[in-house]
Amino acid sequence: MSLHVHKYGGTSVGTAEKIQNVAKKLVKERQASGHDLVVVVSAMSGETNRMTELANQMQQLPSKKQMDVLLSTGEQVTIALLCMALEELGMQAVSYTGWQVKILTDDSHGKARIEEIQTDKIRADLEANKIVVVAGFQGVTSDGAITTLGRGGSDTTAVALAAALKADECRIYTDVDGVYTTDPRVEPKAKRLNKITFEEMLEMASLGSKILQIRSVEFAGKYNVPLRVLSTFEDGEGTLITYEDEEMEKALISGIAFNRDEAKVTLSGVPDMPGVASAILKPISDANIEIDMIVQNIAEDQTTDFTFTVHRNDYEKTMQILQDICIELGASKVDGDNKIVKVSIVGVGMRSHAGIASQMFSALADEGINIRMISTSEIKISVVVDEKYLELAVRTLHESFGLSDA
Ligand code: ADP
Ligand code: ASP
Ligand code: MG
Question: What is the CA(156)–ligand 1 centre distance, in A?
Answer without folding.
Answer: 15
